[in-house]
Amino acid sequence: MAKIEIYTTNTCPYCHAAKELLNQKAASFTEISVVGDAKLRSAMQGRSGGRTSVPQIFIDGTHIGGCDDLYALEEKGALDTLLA
To answer: pLDDT tens digits, residue range 26-67?
Structure first.
């Protein structure tokens, strides 16, 4: 199974939607909350090429993007391959 990391905040509806899709896929993931943690947010920004919004999703160390990007992969049928 792929290593999935998702940077989130607890009030972000897009974070909840991304986690819901991953849960539907029975994909385990590590959630990294950036709430009130400038160092984690800075690390997220560095890893994601400067993006500051959440969620930011990484699969096996590769930056996937945000919630819309995750759902776009699902619509293309490419998400299952990445998660395998």
So the answer is: 999 999 999 999 999 999 999 999 999 999 999 999 999 999
Query: Tokens 């792929």 — which residue?
Result: 2
Phi-psi region of 60 (alpha: psi -120 to 50; beta: other; left: phi over 0): left
Q: What is the layout of strands, in order, in the sheet containing 62-65?
A: 30-33, 4-8, 56-59, 62-65
Number of domains in the chain: 1
CATH code for position 65: 3.40.30.10
Provide the domain limits for residue 78: 4-83
Rg (the chain; Cα; Å): 12
